[in-house]
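EI: anyone free to look at a 119-residue chain?
SC: sure, send it
EI:
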Amino acid sequence: MLDRLQGVARRLGGLKPALAAAGLVLFALATALVVFGDPQSGDGVLMPAIAGGLWCLCAWLFIDTFAAVPPAPTAELHGWGRLRRQLARLWYLLLALALLGLTLAVLSLSERLIGEALD
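SC: here you go
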């Protein structure tokens, strides 16, 4: 599973600067609408800007985290080296589960934000 995540993250690695730029622009737009916008007219753009910024953040975190997953321990590794490699991979597995939870939370929030924006 970690090797597949690493492969996907490496293939998407070229999108990392674009995701960072888009996320910053969307968060700047949301901030500007909150600070300077009219509360009645800005909601149509504010909610999608927040949702888009959160998705850009999730995608950027995925690419940044899983681009360099340590390889699985080989038969030549013994003792502390093998244990260290397994613990490192366990850490990445826990990060994958945390990112899955974060993605589900952002999906739920996006559904609510966009549903409220369309009402």
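EI: The longest helix spans residues 80-118.
SC: 👍
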